[in-house]
Amino acid sequence: MSDQFNEELITAIRKRAESESGAATSADCEEITVATELTSLDLDSLDLADLLWDLERANNVEIDLDLSDAWSNLHTVGDIVEAVRPLLAKEA
């Protein structure tokens, strides 16, 4: 199921992955879905922190996640969606 937040997150991930030197190729970035593994995009914990910061700025909210726990528990784009969506809804 695709929705606006999924697309916003995928766009943010695509931009971050494409901007990283040595990161996933543009072709890989075009195929990002909620099932895409973060490690397949060569994103690391710092990239996740930056991505969450980008989402905070874009949505004018504070995403309160413990990054070490998040990196241990968030493995796919869909995992990020499921973790962040309730935080965004709470802030709205």
UniProtKB/TrEMBL annotation:
Domain (Carrier): residue spans on this chain: 4-88
Superkingdom of this entry's organism?
Answer: Bacteria
- What start-end ranges are recorded for coiled-coil regions in this protein? none
Q: What is this protein called?
A: Nodulation protein NodF
**Organism of origin:** Sinorhizobium terangae
The top of its lineage is: Bacteria, Pseudomonadati, Pseudomonadota, Alphaproteobacteria, Hyphomicrobiales
